[in-house]
Design goal:
Largest interface: A-B, 32 and 33 residues
Helix content of chain A: 10-25%
Largest sheet of chain A: 5 strands, antiparallel
Strand order of the largest sheet of chain A: 1-3-4-5-2
Radius of gyration of chain A: 18 Å
Order of helices and strands of chain A: EHHHHEEEE
Shape of chain A: elongated
Structural class of chain A: alpha+beta
Strand content of chain A: 25-35%
Oligomer: homodimer
């Protein structure tokens, strides 16, 4: 896959990731490590909760989305370096869900002090197999120009 | 620890978490699973990158912060259910860093349609051992009132 530098990006440009399956075992393993709340760990407790069934930690969905972006969903030559952004989880991720990520460049703000870099705003939406958005991340990413020849 | 319901919360209320150490092995393990970029996995590559040394994935810092919040850093009786929010990573998390989280309630917005719940805005700042903020999460959390007796 062609890796992109700042010069290759434009507002409105879109990207699509591969897919990944959110296995029940990995949902429980992630939760046990990072978000050990009953509705992420135990079917009966989850059923009685506002989730009405087992749901992945939002941070698991965020991390799985990052993996899809790193694995070609957002092919930036210098990698994906986020300064921050806005996140939302409009729906839970469920065991067995297949996620994919659609991304779009919303803004490109060249640095005033560093002419070889810019802050690029990218909106990434993780969708399940029913095309329901389960996670939206509008990120500010640090993106670099192509290095000069010989550098 | 006393678990808090909506009636127990007020704007300006503050909370402090326990601490956790971000071990190099767990930084690499998290990155291998969720964010396999060279600057999170390999010292030499990290040294040559803009991080100038191994740095944890921002999602690892976010997940470790969540664990500190779940483990008593934000003792809400119905758990921590986030709708979304704003995130920022002002500095990298480094191997061996000890993190703790300070949280403050910024806003309480009662639901119009559901009298027993509100959206509570909580700003959580993860600080390293030098008191440098490494991660800021301003979250919208769903919080519930104490159940009526007998319910």
């Amino acid at each position: 896959m062609e890796k992109l530098y700042l010069e290759d990006l434009r507002i409105g440009q879109r990207f699509a990731s591969a897919t990944c399956v959110m296995e029940e075992s990995s949902i429980k393993a992630f939760a046990a490590e990072s978000d050990p709340q009953p509705f992420h760990l135990d079917e009966a407790a989850a059923k009685a909760s506002l989730f009405r069934g087992l749901a992945a930690s939002g941070w698991h969905t965020a991390s799985a989305t990052m993996r899809l972006l790193v694995d070609g969903g957002l092919p930036f030559a210098n990698g994906l370096v986020g300064l921050g952004g806005e996140i939302a989880w409009p729906k839970p991720t469920r065991p067995g869900d297949t996620l994919r990520v659609e991304s779009e460049i919303l803004e490109i703000a060249p640095s005033r002090s560093k002419p070889n870099q810019a802050i690029v705003t990218v909106k990434s939406i993780a969708l399940n197999q029913n095309a329901d958005p389960v996670y939206v991340f509008t990120a500010k990413l640090l993106v670099f120009k192509r290095p000069a020849p010989g550098v």
